[in-house]
Amino acid sequence: MTSTTRRALLAAPLLLMPFAHAAWAATPTATPPLIGPQQLKAMLGKPNVVILDATARQYYMRAHIPGAVFTDYGRWRVKMGDVKGMLPPVERMEKFIGAHGIGNDDHVIIVPLGFSAGDLGVATRIFWTFKVLGHDKVSILNGGMAGWVDKRLPLDARPVRPAPKTFKARLDRRWLATPEEVEKALNDNSALLIDNRPPGQHLGVLKPGSVAQPGTIPGSVNVPEQWLAPKGRLLAKDKLAKLHRLLKADADTPAINFCNTGHRASLGWFVRSQILGKPAKLYDGSMAEWSRLPGKPVRAKLDLAK
Prior knowledge:
CATH architecture of the largest domain: 3-Layer(aba) Sandwich
Distance between the termini: 50 Å
Helix content: 25-40%
Radius of gyration: 19 Å
Number of domains: 2
Mean pLDDT: 91
Low-confidence stretches: 13-21
Strand content: 5-15%
Oligomer: single chain
């Protein structure tokens, strides 16, 4: 079947169904980070499984995986000072996650839209948030809704309003890099710094509105997030490993992934830590925060404004 378009997804026929610094972490847990459409189909309706639809409300209202609960990605991140997209306070996230019908014993499966690397980044950022909150029973649907519809698997149009549950976080800082850790890596090479933004932003040719100045953290290597998941689907593991080798980002040393606001970098972090099994943390504030901190170096390798 040809690749699904956004229009096709909206028009898809419904097959209705009822129903302080921390150590570095490298080894994924027993819960698989990715599951396929057929695996998810076999899990529909089972207890302690919550399907989290992270597409967009218009898609969810037209058609979604049976039993899926919609989540608004914008509420998974908050603005702190001048920095957008930060991890919200833990207490707020406990209530927010519990309101989705998610408890500590539930296996959460996140469903992105599936057309672009940016779509997948929505899922990987939510995945990272669960990991930071100490919830390891979390997976992403490989291929997202686009892949599900391509295979003509069941769909439903009825919105799901789950009964709230109690969710208690156990903050796991092994996945969360601080500005102090970034500065330490910059000074003593204790961690590889990986910039997951497009090359133009990494070089300083382009300045996104979220950052205070163009350029990147000195010494960082560039692994563009778009190259990891063309058309929204991850490259095979061997190709991801080869790409990291070509870009000189394959060292077994710890790494810190960053971008502008921690969205693109979540995909880079997911690939490195969950697929390639290498130690990695995500710098939540990324360049939006770093470029505003006093005395922190930012280097534009090709600043066209000069």
